[in-house]
Design a protein that fits this description.
Largest sheet: 5 strands, antiparallel
Order of helices and strands: HHHEEEEEHEE
Oligomer: single chain
Structural class: alpha+beta
Number of helices: 4
CATH architecture of the largest domain: Beta Barrel
CATH topology of the largest domain: OB fold (Dihydrolipoamide Acetyltransferase, E2P)
Number of strands: 7
Strand order of the largest sheet: 5-4-1-6-7
Number of domains: 2
Length: 171
């Protein structure tokens, strides 16, 4: 009676398999296709990020509308501030210039609502740019000391808002 002994694959067998794979005539094409696929995926990932600050803010408000919890806060003040001129990319020089340097000179006025709220004994004091929401926010009726509902991110309580496209905490 003979006993069959199973011998594990040896290192030299694995090396031979790798040499066979590398020597295959289609290997360079497969490797090039894999590199191109990885480059295309990296480019798609890089391009999907929003570059516009307005789009980034809109996505933040959308996220807070979905996951945010509501807490009572208080309006501190309403402030109007001149917005920095947005960068303008010129085709001829490929340099970035501000609109003021471009001869435009018109600076937009941004409406900021400063507010405060407390969560678990921690008081947060922040502001939200409500430009574009003036009608919805009824800023002419908002005064300092007025209570307001604040929507905040439970994972990051410093991330909050007073008003969004589909929600308003201003009473």
């Amino acid at each position: 009676m003979h006993l069959a002994v199973v011998v594990p694959a040896r290192f030299s067998d694995r090396r031979r398999t790798l040499k066979t794979l590398l020597a295959h005539p289609a290997f360079p094409f497969i490797a090039a296709a894999a590199v191109l696929l990885l480059a295309a995926l990296a480019l798609l990932w890089w391009r999907r990020r929003p570059r516009d600050p307005e789009e980034i803010e809109r996505r933040r408000r959308e996220y807070l509308s979905r996951v945010g919890r509501i807490v009572e806060g208080e309006i501190l003040e309403i402030r109007e501030a001149a917005a920095p001129a947005p960068p303008v990319r010129t085709k001829s020089t490929a340099k970035t210039m501000t609109s003021a340097a471009n001869g435009n000179g018109a600076s937009a006025v941004r409406s900021l609502v400063c507010y405060t709220y407390s969560i678990s004994g921690v008081t947060y004091e922040t502001a939200q740019d409500v430009t574009g929401f003036e009608e919805r926010a009824c800023l002419h009726r908002v005064i300092s000391g007025q209570p307001a509902s604040v929507k905040y991110d439970p994972q990051s309580p410093g991330n909050s808002m007073l008003i969004a496209e589909d929600w308003s905490g201003l009473h």
